[in-house]
Specification:
The protein has helices spanning about 15-30, 45-55, 80-85, 95-100, 105-120, 130-135, 140-155, 180-195, 200-205, 215-220, 240-250; strands spanning about 5-10, 35-40, 60-65, 90-95, 120-125, 165, 205-210, 230. With about 250 residues, the protein is α/β, with parallel strands linked by helices. The chain has one domain (about 5-250): Aldolase class I (TIM Barrel). Strands 1-2-3-4-5-6-7-8 form an 8-stranded parallel beta barrel, surrounded by 6 helices. The longest helix has 16 residues, at about 140-155. Bound molecules: phosphoenolpyruvate (PEP).
C-alpha cells in the first residue's frame, strides 16, 4: 500500500498567535495512524515555532521553498542544509506560484529538487497546467515536461524519496476543483511516465492532488486509485477543515 500524505501549504499567511492556535488544535486532534502522514509547510520565519510545537506529535513539517545552492553568496536565500539542521522533513518545490510569479524554470525546479535531496529533505514536486493549457489539450504535455525535467536531471531513482503534487493552476485558490476523474487522469498519466522508467518506483510513488481541496470534496478525490493524499492551501489554515481533510485521507 502506498503512503498517503496530507500536507498543508500555509503560503504567506500566519502570525505567532494564529499559528499557535492552529498547531495546538492539529496536535490535539491528529494522532498517528498507519499508512497516513500529515505535514504543515509554513513560511520560513515560523519554522522554528512549528518545529518546537510539533515535536513528538504525529505531524511532520516542511518549508515552501529552498535555494538550489548549498551555500554561498545568495542574499535572502535559504539552503536545504539549514532547513534540515533543525528537523525539517519536507520541502515544496516548483509550486505554480513560484513558477508563475517568480519565474522558476523547469531546470531551476529540478536543481531545487536535487538540492533538497542532497540535504536529506523529501521534496514535494508540484506540477500542473494552466486553464489555457488544459483548454488547448496540453495538460499531459505540460505535466510531462515539468516531470521529465526532474527525472532527466535527478534520475528516476530520486523518485523513491519524493512525492509529486498534481496541482492544476486553475484550481489553486479559485474554489474550482478538478473532478475526481480529471485528477485521476492526470495522476495516472504521471504514474505511467514514472513507470516507463521504473515500474516498482512508480507503484510506490505518492501522488498528491492540490487545488481547492475542501472537507466536502476531499473524500471523493482521495477515493481515486492514483490519488494518494493532498496538498492543501486555504483549507490548511482552518483547523476543522484540515482535520476533516486528513480524516478523508485516512480512509483512502
Ligand atoms: C496550494 O497552495 O498548493 C493549494 C492547493 O491551494 P488551495 O488549496 O487554496 O487551492
Amino acid at each position: 500500500m502506498r503512503a498517503v500524505l496530507v500536507a498543508g501549504n500555509w503560503k504567506m499567511h500566519g502570525s505567532l498567535a494564529a499559528n499557535q492556535a492552529l498547531l495546538d488544535a492539529l496536535k490535539a486532534r491528529l494522532g498517528s495512524r498507519d499508512g497516513i502522514g500529515y505535514a504543515v509547510c509554513s513560511p520560513f520565519p515560523y519554522l522554528y515555532q512549528v518545529a518546537t510545537s510539533l515535536a513528538g506529535s504525529a505531524i511532520s513539517w516542511g518549508a515552501q521553498n529552498l535555494s538550489e545552492h548549498d551555500v554561498g553568496a545568495y542574499t535572502g536565500e535559504v539552503s536545504g542544509a539549514m532547513l534540515r539542521e533543525f528537523g525539517c522533513r519536507y520541502v515544496i518545490v516548483g509550486h505554480s506560484e513560484r513558477r508563475g510569479l517568480y519565474g522558476e524554470t523547469d531546470q531551476q525546479v529540478a536543481a531545487k529538487f536535487m538540492a533538497a535531496q542532497r540535504a536529506g529533505l523529501t521534496p514535494i514536486l508540484c506540477v500542473g497546467e494552466t486553464l489555457e493549457q488544459r483548454d488547448r489539450g496540453d495538460t499531459q504535455a505540460v505535466v510531462g515536461r515539468q516531470l521529465e525535467a526532474v527525472l532527466n536531471s535527478a534520475g528516476v531513482s530520486a523518485i523513491e524519496n519524493a512525492a509529486i503534487a498534481y496541482e492544476p493552476v486553475w484550481a489553486i485558490g479559485t474554489g474550482k476543483t478538478a473532478t475526481p476523474a480529471q485528477a485521476q487522469g492526470a495522476h495516472e498519466y504521471i504514474r505511467g511516465l514514472v513507470a516507463g522508467r521504473d515500474k516498482s518506483l512508480a507503484a510506490g510513488l505518492s501522488i498528491l492532488y492540490g487545488g481547492s481541496v475542501k472537507p466536502d470534496n476531499a473524500r471523493e478525490l482521495f477515493a481515486m486509485p492514483d490519488v494518494d493524499g493532498g496538498l492543501i492551501g486555504g483549507a490548511a489554515l482552518v483547523a476543522d477543515d484540515f482535520v476533516a481533510i486528513c480524516e478523508a485521507g485516512a480512509t483512502h
